[in-house]
């Protein structure tokens, strides 16, 4: 028996991340100089002693499977429990695509049942934050709740873009409103739930038979529970939390890393060993900064060779920046080569792209940062040629 | 099928490391920003396809045990073969063996059990990124009893003193293993030997009360054996003194040397979960090797920072080696200095050694 | 680069194994007291130093995934390579069911390409045999072949039931005949192939575009290669080999284990360390033989308690045989309980079945052995009640 | 959050095993067909949810290293926490510590680093299948400094001599830790202690040149500390002599005892890849424990066969313990015998010991 089993919904396609999710599932997108987005959630599990975890994918993405592997990086290579990848095809003869978040859990009831848990933690793999799920569980037990939903205060003017929870003063939830026109509260659901499994199990089974349901936690399960007077509480989270659903927010979250006052994970991890971020470690030599290199306000990973100017940027492993290149407010994914005299500002360069000598690419201050890969770099380059 | 197993023999390694080996053996000395000396011997073995490696350890090996763990970082966490740490075992009342022979004697079963029929023996102080497959092919083609690997050195330096020199005749035959200090063909301490023969030599050495397998069993029996030489002439270093340690670290700050030593296949080391290096607003770093987990806000020139070092603003580090998790406060000036792990240098300190004799601070000091 | 990558076809449903494959993929069916069928092939890989292996399943069977895990039992938990489960859903947005053996490999060309191998070994997971694939590879290299197919001599009278290879005296193949009415040879294909990857890759791509192809190695790829004068050789295997495709052959292969002269794997493994069989080890206490127990000519696994008579049988872990029970020529899967005075002969009892006191079930000598599970045991029991 | 870590202290364990410990320490002695003594302490810890276990080893621990490996069999192959084997380290020039204190002294960092705030200390010679969660709950509820676990024994036997006796007062307070041989409340050697306090006691003992943490730092300081008692009254054994080793193995042949010791959660041990037991035509086995890999064609009565034992036809084994890979030829008769690993008994041999004093054959003998 396990007290609490985690279910991580990692099926998001991340369409709004454009090119970044062309070849990659959203949770597998590189983030923070050496991590992938899902590492932050997996590390939360590791730091919260959640050692039995199902990772639900809409298909079985090979790079996510290989990244997670047997879960060793997060100490989840356990004899009993550990991490299990659950694609819709993991049935006797395959299964249906998951039709909603609740359906994804419903289709894996047997997986959860085998551990006979008292509680189930439901999380998703596409946010950057550090949370100890044991604190949520402790509140869940203390309030004797059927469900506990983590919430974050959002600015009142943005509240109508979120799923908003209306609560009493003791944080007991009496209403859930999806994107309310006139919000009564600014407590937004973070999509992080702890349920008492026995209760959730009943609601999932009932919901599955409802042809009108969209099988979604926010839209269907939570309202159904509220309708039957179950005890639902909000857990108020006040630390750093960022959705990286768009190019702009992905870039902003990266820039937050460089701001030591933002409370973003890498600074916190440095001060607090219980909040470290783990990933599947590669084995590259340390970085080499040449005689002409100049690096300020940046994160640089192993295997890099720097001979140019790098400021306010994040460089993944194995990046080469040649002389007289100037990289500003940019993100260079693994294996990128930056030629001489290249100038980049507010640009994201995808894995293994070679940026030829002399290319200059800027995104203006209020525009969305540009994403470069080997294909579109040529267009930028020829445009520039045309301009000269 | 012919297979090699690896044996890293740390017994009887000559070394003068003073402060750096108070609490660790020489194989565990940190090197080049994120490695330990033993990583080179071990990675060369696994990069050559060996699936079984034994390590003879006698003293101060706790930090080595911690570093090697299950062997996972070198892909040696195997059910069959894999990594074996063999400490000595002094409890056999019938044991008459001495020196490194006692390791072979006490671990005879281990050698008999494995699948390999050749053994590549190495120490930890010859540093290179090499593949022993070619030497093994020559060993098999010539059907040699023993193939010793030597390297010609440009300049004979004090660290070479401890090593035998190889005199090579026709067909790569070894005609002399000497202490001739003028001979630049320095034995690397690495040799390949037929396993059955190795065990025979062990028996001979024990029977005749010998103490050193290579010197007594191979060098002194040279004319009884078919010993061949294999020349390695790639980038390398011999590290067995503070001076050679310092010089060889500094040499790596030349890009060409760095790239030679850290070409693919990479040298592997224990993984850590340090974040990427954080450069802050006042950072000014040149000609340096910086490992993950560092936070740099000062000036770093011609230096090596190991994992997790912090350099505060208005501090300068020149021609120095700063090991894991050292903390350098503001307004510090360090030149020609080696700081062992966890040293904390207080605000305003100035420490200057000479380029011949760097100033060394032992681990965990506050200065 | 890997010299040789293995691809294990583990998609067989094993319909002819009846009840045994109701809940289990065929390769995951228990065999030999502590193993599963696929363990024999996986152990061949381990003993042949094939450390990069793709396991192809038609869906993603959870018990097979859990059994193989990260491949540690077979030393396949390697940093580079190791074992990878490949279900048809392992594409960007899922994929099609594999339409034939060749199609299964075709759909995983990218998986193979990433290791840039010179050779590919193709095997299946449903035969009991011990082969060192390096010997096949050595012959493949020595003959400079494009494909090498392992063959076994079958009795001439059975040859028309097999895929038969007609060869020259040097074992060069000039013709493949699927179930020939008048066989010219008794060399039957074992479904074990080594291909030079460059050549196979071309043929797979060509075959994929052929709408008339059934995308099968035997029916399509091999004839196409012969048609283009490629070099194909047979590798003659002369040791024990058994297909366990039916209840009868499953039972026979089990009885072979008990016959020390049959050359079947367990006896061989005992004498030859290089032919050991590995499995995912469970951790049960040793077996306890009570004062009234009597065991002869049998294999008994850990965790068993024996108080009755057991002869010519194979008992998996955690089986209890109570007093005055008599088990003969039978196979008891893990967790079976045999009540007092039970008599079984030529019976296979499935996992966790409780056989109540006094039940007697026989299969007559020439009939197919009976398979019992908790459901049909009741029928047998009530039949018997009716008889008395 | 309150957490326990485990510490198996093998230093200073009292034992008289003669032949059985020529080449191994007592923690590595084979027991009950497929286990080693240490498996019980280790499994009880991991079955109680501990994720971090340290083992203090001094002598003859090579076979123990081999048995424990990366800790994988106990689910202790972890990046954080997991299994640590801590050999002594004699190289600190400032080290004044003695006895088992030197282990604590030399591994102070290790203790400071872990997440646990309580330590459960155990030896390897108290054998039981138990869960320490309940004792830990009592320890936390009473906010005790130390909770000692004792067990009442039915009959006081020689193997109990080496253990202290516990006198329990009100509210589970320990009012005496004595050597009173008439007191049946035998201390199991297992106790839970607050980690900070443990490190304080270590400092005290070192400062005052003490040699034994428990005797000097806890027993002799009893009235300075809040020490409570927890009674364990399940199935158990104390094994520290050949006689107790033999008797406790034989006791397990009674089904009830066997089931008591091997209830779920199971005691874990190193996995092996032995096939199931093969019984041949002449096998006649009763009242026995047989491990995988055995091949039996003779008569085995009231005996324990470890992994890979072969018993040929027309041989009889009675009231005996036959360890790994022994080979018994035809027409052999063994009664009240212990054969250590790899013993080969030739055709026609008869060996008969007494039930009080079994006949012991050391490993690898041919008789």
From TrEMBL, chains A, C:
Q: The Nucleotidyl transferase domain covers which part of the protein?
A: 6-259
Give one GO molecular function term: glucose-1-phosphate adenylyltransferase activity
Q: Where is the Glucose-1-phosphate adenylyltransferase/Bifunctional protein GlmU-like C-terminal hexapeptide domain?
A: 290-361
Gene Ontology biological-process entries: glycogen biosynthetic process
Instruction: Cite the entry's keywords alphabetically.
Output: ATP-binding, Carbohydrate metabolism, Glycogen biosynthesis, Glycogen metabolism, Nucleotide-binding, Nucleotidyltransferase, Transferase
User: What does the UniProt function comment say about this protein?
Assistant: Involved in the biosynthesis of ADP-glucose, a building block required for the elongation reactions to produce glycogen. Catalyzes the reaction between ATP and alpha-D-glucose 1-phosphate (G1P) to produce pyrophosphate and ADP-Glc.
Q: Which HAMAP family match?
A: GlgC
Q: How does it assemble?
A: Homotetramer.
Q: What protein is this chain from?
A: Glucose-1-phosphate adenylyltransferase
UniProtKB/TrEMBL annotation, chains B, D:
Q: Name one GO molecular function term.
A: glucose-1-phosphate adenylyltransferase activity
Give start and end of each Glucose-1-phosphate adenylyltransferase/Bifunctional protein GlmU-like C-terminal hexapeptide domain. Answer: 281-351
Q: Which domain of life is it from?
A: Bacteria
Query: Nucleotidyl transferase domain spans which residues?
Result: 20-253
Against InterPro entries, the record matches this protein to: ADP-Glc_PPase (IPR011831), GlgDAde_trans (IPR011832), GlmU/GlgC-like_hexapep (IPR056818), NTP_transferase_dom (IPR005835), Nucleotide-diphossugar_trans (IPR029044), Trimer_LpxA-like_sf (IPR011004)
Q: Which UniProt keywords apply?
A: Glycogen biosynthesis, Nucleotidyltransferase, Transferase
GO annotation (BP), single: glycogen biosynthetic process
Q: Which NCBIfam families does the entry link to?
A: glgD
Recorded family membership = Belongs to the bacterial/plant glucose-1-phosphate adenylyltransferase family.
Q: Can you name this protein?
A: Glucose-1-phosphate adenylyltransferase subunit GlgD
The organism encoding this protein is: Oceanobacillus indicireducens
């Amino acid at each position: 028996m396990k007290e609490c089993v985690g279910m991580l919904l990692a099926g998001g396609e991340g369409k709004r991340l454009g090119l970044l999710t062309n070849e990659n599932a959203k949770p597998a997108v590189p983030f923070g100089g050496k991590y992938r987005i899902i590492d932050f959630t997996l590390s939360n599990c590791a730091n919260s002693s959640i050692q039995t975890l199902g990772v639900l994918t809409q298909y079985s993405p090979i790079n996510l499977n290989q990244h997670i592997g047997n879960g060793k990086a997060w100490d989840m290579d356990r004899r009993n429990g550990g991490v299990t990848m659950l694609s819709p095809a993991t049935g006797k003869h395959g299964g249906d695509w998951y039709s909603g978040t609740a359906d994804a859990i419903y289709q894996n009831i047997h997986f959860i049942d085998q551990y006979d848990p008292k509680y189930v933690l439901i999380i998703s793999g596409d946010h950057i934050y550090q949370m100890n799920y044991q604190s949520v569980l402790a509140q869940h037990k203390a309030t004797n709740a059927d469900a506990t939903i983590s919430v974050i205060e959002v600015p009142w003017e943005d509240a109508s873009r979120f799923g908003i929870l209306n609560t009493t003063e003791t944080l007991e939830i009496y209403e859930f409103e999806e994107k309310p026109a006139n919000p009564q509260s600014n407590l937004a659901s973070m999509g992080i739930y702890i349920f008492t499994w026995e209760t959730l199990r009943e609601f999932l089974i009932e919901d599955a038979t409802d042809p009108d349901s969209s099988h979604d936690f926010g839209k269907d399960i939570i309202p159904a529970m509220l309708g039957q007077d179950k005890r639902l509480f909000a857990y108020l989270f006040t630390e750093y939390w960022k959705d990286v659903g768009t190019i702009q927010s992905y870039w902003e979250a990266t820039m937050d890393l460089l701001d030591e006052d933002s409370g973003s994970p890498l600074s916190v991890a440095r001060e607090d060993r219980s909040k470290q971020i783990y990933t599947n470690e590669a084995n590259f030599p340390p970085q080499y900064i040449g005689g002409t290199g100049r690096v300020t306000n940046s994160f640089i990973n192993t295997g890099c060779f720097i001979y140019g100017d790098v400021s306010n940027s994040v460089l993944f492993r194995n990046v080469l920046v040649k002389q007289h290149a100037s990289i500003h407010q940019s993100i260079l994914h693994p294996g990128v080569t930056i030629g001489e005299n290249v100038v980049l500002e507010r640009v994201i360069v995808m894995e293994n792209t070679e940026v030829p000598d002399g290319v200059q690419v800027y995104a203006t201050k209020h525009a969305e940062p540009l994403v470069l890969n080997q294909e579109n770099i040529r267009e930028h380059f020829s445009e520039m040629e045309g301009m000269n | 099928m012919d297979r090699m197993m690896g044996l890293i023999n740390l017994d009887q390694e000559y070394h003068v490391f003073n402060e750096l080996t108070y609490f660790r053996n020489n194989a565990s000395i940190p090197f080049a920003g994120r490695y330990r000396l033993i990583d080179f011997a071990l990675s060369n073995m696994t990069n050559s396809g060996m699936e079984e490696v034994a390590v003879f350890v006698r003293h101060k090996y706790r930090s080595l045990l911690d570093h090697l763990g299950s062997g996972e970082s070198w892909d040696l966490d195997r059910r069959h073969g894999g990594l074996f740490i063999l400490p000595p075992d002094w409890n056999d009342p019938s044991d008459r063996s001495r020196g490194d022979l006692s390791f072979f004697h006490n671990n005879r079963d281990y050698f008999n059990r494995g699948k390999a029929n050749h053994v590549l023996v190495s120490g930890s102080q010859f540093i290179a990124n090499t593949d022993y497959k070619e030497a093994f092919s020559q060993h098999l083609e010539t059907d040699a009893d023993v193939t010793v690997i030597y390297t010609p050195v440009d300049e004979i330096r004090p660290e070479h003193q401890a090593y035998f020199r190889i005199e090579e005749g026709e067909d790569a035959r070894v005609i002399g293993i000497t202490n001739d200090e003028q001979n630049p063909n320095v034995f690397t301490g690495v040799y390949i030997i037929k396993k059955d023969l190795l065990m025979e030599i062990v028996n001979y050495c024990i029977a005749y009360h010998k103490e050193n397998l290579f010197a007594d069993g191979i060098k002194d029996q040279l004319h009884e054996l078919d010993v061949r030489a294999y020349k390695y002439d790639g980038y390398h270093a011999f590290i067995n003194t503070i001076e050679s340690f310092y010089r060889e670290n500094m040499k790596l700050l030349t890009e060409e040397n760095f790239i030679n030593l850290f070409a693919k296949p990479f040298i592997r080391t224990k993984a850590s979960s340090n974040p990427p290096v954080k450069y802050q607003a006042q950072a000014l770093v040149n000609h340096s090797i910086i490992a993950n987990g560092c936070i740099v806000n000062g000036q770093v020139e011609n230096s090596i920072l190991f994992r997790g070092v912090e350099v505060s603003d208005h501090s300068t580090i020149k021609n120095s080696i700063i090991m894991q998790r050292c903390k350098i406060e503001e307004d510090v000036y360090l030149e020609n200095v080696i700081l062992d792990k966890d040293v904390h240098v207080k605000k305003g300190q100035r420490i200057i050694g000479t380029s011949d004799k760097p100033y060394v601070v032992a681990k965990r000091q506050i200065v």
